[in-house]
Structure formats: structure tokens, C-alpha cells
Write a structure and sequence with these properties.
alpha/beta; Rossmann fold
Length: 540
């Protein structure tokens, strides 16, 4: 359906893409993966015509209709769900407005005074009614009614204002608008960001059921596994295609690198042996002919390329901290509400040292509120929240922490402010652990990408030694490599962790206990994420 042939994209300061080659066929679902800044979103922009490639060709069979679901949803929050879905039919909407305009003119026109003008309006009305019918105007409402239940909306929900809905439901409307346009290819850029687990499960099933082609940019490894049967990996501007899901890609990529490394080393060893022989017998009376023959053969040999040296992966650990006592947190008979909604009702919770607890539940159920209550940023309406009596040192990462950074400051200065006695070498080494190398440490915060801000916010939090971590969506905007490193750092962490995340792979790697907030209660599952899914009957 669409093919990229030797696509390159060069900006004034950077080469983003170098001879990218891949193709997508009708109905295929492809994952586009790579680290932050690898050029994934740039390829989307080239596909939809927002940017032109510097060189290469985008070949299209026919005129495939491409729709793009962006991270920032394109919705009018002042419309109802139905009105927003109907806005997909732009041509029909224009004709419908024109029909209404003509009908209003006819109402105010007195036929006896100007019959010619009335005849003209009647003819215009007939023409626009023909257009309305030809465009499928009479089927528009039926199409919307058909898609509403697929998106999870009831008839009553259709009249709700979009601004009154959660981000997850707004995303469903944005997706519904695109589906109603009947595209041949759907581009999805991080569609699971900020969605709760329930909505992610729904989105997976819904996208699997669609027969159209999909290209997906995502850092959600479970999501990629469920949806994609082909992975296009972008590294240093070069693309490589793997025919399988994400897990297959990870395994195959590792095998390929290992195989290439071995083949390269063997050939280098053989070349060195031959060169040694040539040098030794080049001037020999008896073996010079043989040496020259080997030299000719060596020039003809097809050399195996050295494997691309792996990019430095940000590597960090939490600083050492004195151990806490066995009891870290005790919540007694806690009740708390927000406006008219009861979030927590008479709940109790005990947390012991060394536990790694994931807090799960739909958006708006009170997960972030619970962390704020523990951190005493909010006072509980009823009940008690007590930290352990022995040596509890907390550290807190808020969901919007990356956005709260001082935009006018440089990366390196923010670290100096917290540790003025550190040498520049120590600061640079520390920042290197979070992916800030060379001149990147002198970037101003306002110049950073979402992923870079998230890494910097993590770095600033980690500088505080603690034995009780509270993390609210720490993986948002992090690329796959940095997520993996955070998993490793938390697994090596000797303290206690309570975290909120919608990244199922991250939860499965880190949590040894699950707390679900459901109907204002805390439900505890003493096991990992797979145990939780099994108990909930979701591990299908």
C-alpha cells in the first residue's frame, strides 16, 4: 500500500533519517520502535505530508486515505459526544449548514413580494438536498449510532459534553472520529499514554478487530505484542524490519547482533592470519607467488561490517540510604472525597519494608490522591495515615513533576543547585547516567523533549537518598531503554516502593504486591501482576 524507498531527512543541525526502507500492506499492523529522537514521529509527518523528505521516495498504491491520532487530541470540548463524532463528516456538515441557511431564508421571505427570489431559493434547496443525499447525509446518524456502542457509549452518553469526560473517554471519541472517516491507514502516536488499564484493554481489543492497516508508535511492550505482527526498528537513522511481534523482535535482534559479532570477529581473525602470511613470505623465493595469490584473494573478499556499537544506555541507581524499620506505613479507617465524589471509604492498609506495591484502578478513582495523602500534601477528612516510627525517609515523584521544572535554567545548573559541592566531573557523570552526554548538559529545560524532561525530573528526585519511594506515573514519556533501566534500578533498590503506573510490562517487572482501588475500597493482592490478572480472570 505504501513504501518508503531510501528516505532521508536532514535538518540544519542533524541527520535524523538515513536511507529508510520499509513497506506496509493492506490490513497490516506495524510497530515503529526506537529511542526518543530516533525519527519515528518524523516519519509520520512525512507520511501525512506535514514535512517533506530530503531525499528518497514515498510510493503509494492508488490514493490511500491516511488518518493520524495524535498525542494531543484534536477535539472540541464544548461539543457533545454526538456532535463531535458528526464533525468527522465535514462535507456533509457544510452542506447541512447550507440547507439550514436556505430554509431560514425561505421562512423570512414573503412569496407574494418576491416570487423569483423564492424560486431561486427552492432550486438551491433542491440542489443541496441532492448533494446531501449523494454524500450519504441520511446515513450519517446511522453511522454514528453504529460506532457509539463500539466505543463504549450508551445513547444517553451521546448527549454528554466532551469537556465533562475523562481523558480516556475523550480519546475514544477522537478515535471514533477517525474510524468514521474510513481510512485505509491509521497512524497512532503513543495512544496508551495517560489511559487507565481498563481503557488500554478496550483499545487493544478494538484495534485488533479493525481490518485497516495501522502503524503504531508506542513504548507499551504488551500493547505492541498484542497488536503488531511486524516491527520496524529505527536506530541512528537506519531502519530494520522484523516479521513478528515485539517479543520476537527483541529476541531476534539480540541473536542477529551476536551472530554478526561472531562472524565479524572470525573474519577479522582470518584476515589477520592471511596478512601475517603475506608479510612473512612476500620476499621468499619459494613462496612469494603463493603470498601474492593470497594478497589478491584478500582484496576480493567481501568484508563483514563491524556491528554498530550500541548507543550508551542511561544507567543509574538509587543512592544508599539507612534501612527503615519493618513497619513503613499504616493507614487506619481512612475516608476521603473530592468535591461530591467519595474516593476512599473506611480503608485500611499496612506496608512493610521491602514491598514494591503497584496502585491500580481507573482514572479518577483516587490513586494520585492516595499518594498525596501519604505525603501529607492533603489532610485526610477521616482516619489516620502514619509513617513507621523508625527512620522513614521519603522521596516523591509527582505525575506532572517534569512539567514543573524551571524552563529558563540549564540542565547542569539544576543539579548544581541541589549539590553545590559536587565537582563538574561528578555532575557530568551523574547526568550521563540519565542520557545527558557532552553538550546536552548545557541545554535549557525549555529545549528538552518530553522524554528528556522526564529523565531530568527523575535525576533530581534520585539525588535525595530515601528508603520509601512514592512514584506517580514515573514511566510517562520515557523510551523503552530508560524504562528498562528504571525497572533494574527499582529492583536493586533496598527500600520500599509504592507506585502508580499504566505500563503493564513495567508493573509485571517491578511489583511484588498489587493494590486495586475499586468502589472506594483498597483490594490487596499479595503477588505480582500475573497473579493479579489470574485472580481477576484477565490473563487470557
Amino acid at each position: 500500500m505504501i513504501r518508503f524507498e531510501n528516505i532521508s531527512k536532514i535538518y540544519s543541525t542533524d541527520v535524523v533519517l538515513k536511507n529508510i526502507n520499509w513497506e506496509i500492506r493492506q490490513g497490516e499492523k506495524i510497530g515503529l520502535v526506537g529511542s526518543n529522537g530516533a525519527g519515528k514521529s518524523t516519519q509520520f509527518k512525512i507520511l501525512i505530508g506535514e514535512e517533506d523528505q530530503t531525499s528518497g521516495l514515498v510510493l503509494k498504491e492508488g490514493s490511500p486515505k491516511i488518518s493520524h491520532l495524535k498525542q494531543e487530541l484534536d477535539c472540541n470540548l464544548g461539543r457533545t459526544v454526538r456532535e463531535e463524532l458528526e464533525s468527522s463528516f465535514k462535507d456533509i456538515q457544510l452542506v447541512s449548514h447550507k440547507l439550514l441557511e436556505i430554509e431560514n431564508q425561505m421562512k423570512f421571505l414573503q412569496a407574494s413580494r418576491d416570487p423569483k427570489k423564492l424560486d431561486k431559493l427552492v432550486n438551491q434547496l433542491a440542489n443541496y438536498q441532492e448533494k446531501f443525499e449523494a454524500l450519504g447525509g441520511y446515513q450519517m446518524q446511522a453511522e454514528v449510532d453504529k460506532v457509539l456502542p463500539k466505543l463504549g457509549f450508551s445513547e444517553k452518553d451521546a448527549d454528554k459534553l466532551l469537556g465533562d469526560l475523562s481523558g480516556g473517554w475523550q480519546m475514544k471519541v477522537a478515535l471514533g472520529k477517525i474510524i468514521l472517516q474510513k481510512p485505509d491507514l491509521l497512524l497512532l502516536d503513543e495512544p496508551t499514554n495517560h489511559l487507565d488499564l481498563e481503557t488500554i484493554f478496550w483499545l487493544e481489543e478494538y484495534l485488533v478487530s479493525l481490518k485497516i492497516a495501522i502503524i503504531l508508535i508506542s513504548h507499551d511492550r504488551y500493547f505492541l505484542d498484542k497488536l503488531c505482527k511486524k516491527i520496524i526498528f529505527i536506530e541512528r537513522g537506519i531502519s530494520e524490519t522484523f516479521n513478528g511481534n515485539y517479543s520476537f523482535f527483541v529476541e531476534q535482534k539480540s541473536l542477529n547482533e551476536e551472530s554478526q559479532q561472531k562472524a565479524f570477529e572470525l573474519q577479522q581473525k582470518e584476515i589477520a592470519t592471511q596478512k601475517k602470511y603475506i608479510e612473512r613470505f612476500r620476499a621468499s623465493a619459494t613462496r612469494s607467488t603463493q603470498a601474492k595469490s593470497r594478497e589478491k584473494q584478500l582484496k576480493k573478499i567481501l568484508k563483514i561490517d563491524a556491528p554498530i556499537s550500541r548507543k550508551k544506555i542511561p544507567s543509574f541507581n538509587f543512592p544508599d540510604c539507612p534501612r527503615s524499620g519493618k513497619s513503613v506505613l499504616q493507614i487506619k479507617n481512612l475516608s476521603h472525597s473530592f468535591e461530591e465524589k467519595i474516593l476512599l471509604l473506611d480503608v485500611n492498609l499496612k506496608v512493610s519494608a521491602g514491598e514494591k506495591i503497584a496502585i491500580l484502578g481507573p482514572n479518577g478513582c483516587g490513586k494520585s490522591t492516595l499518594l498525596k495523602l501519604i505525603m501529607r500534601q492533603i489532610k485526610p477528612e477521616i482516619g489516620e495515615i502514619n509513617l513507621g516510627k523508625h527512620n522513614i525517609i521519603t522521596s516523591y515523584y509527582e505525575q506532572n513533576q517534569a512539567e514543573a521544572l524551571a524552563v529558563e535554567k540549564q540542565v547542569i545548573d539544576l543539579i548544581y543547585e541541589k549539590s553545590p559541592d559536587w565537582s563538574q566531573q561528578k555532575v557530568r557523570t551523574f547526568l550521563g547516567g540519565f542520557g545527558f552526554y557532552n553538550n546536552a548538559v548545557f541545554k535549557y529545560v525549555e529545549q528538552l523533549s518530553g522524554g528528556e524532561k522526564a529523565r531530568l525530573a527523575l535525576a533530581l528526585m534520585i539525588m535525595n537518598p530515601s528508603n520509601f519511594l512514592l512514584l506517580d506515573e514515573p514511566t510517562n514519556h520515557l523510551d523503552l531503554q530508560t524504562k528498562e533501566n528504571l525497572e533494574l534500578a527499582i529492583n536493586n533498590y533496598k527500600g520500599t516502593v509504592i507506585f502508580i503506573s499504566h505500563d503493564r510490562y513495567f508493573i509485571s517487572k517491578v511489583a511484588n504486591r498489587i493494590i486495586e482501588i475499586k468502589n472506594s475500597k483498597l483490594l490487596s493482592f499479595s503477588g505480582n501482576y500475573e497473579y493479579f490478572l489470574e485472580k481477576k480472570g484477565l490473563n487470557k
